[in-house]
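Methods, example record. To illustrate the input and output format used throughout this study, we show the complete record for Large ribosomal subunit protein bL31. The sequence lines were provided to the predictor; the line carrying structure tokens was produced by it.
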Amino acid sequence: MKKDIHPEYKDTQVTCGCGEKFVTRSTVASGSIYVEVCSVCHPFYTGKQRILDTGGRVAKFEERFGKNK
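The corresponding predicted structure is encoded as:
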């Protein structure tokens, strides 16, 4: 690696909108990052995600316009 061309890689505190705080490493100059969602409050990680059923839409389309034969 070339010397003195890479940004400093330091500990950075991440603060989520839900109030969760954790430390990671980053090259961000301020030493802090604010995010809207994290693994504590994101629906994918909490098990509260909703799966959209598009099957009804397909059936409705086929009913209106008929299936291609």
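Annotations derived from this record:
Residues 10-65 form a domain with the Rhinovirus 14, subunit 4 fold (CATH 4.10.80.400).
The chain is about 20% helix and 25% strand.
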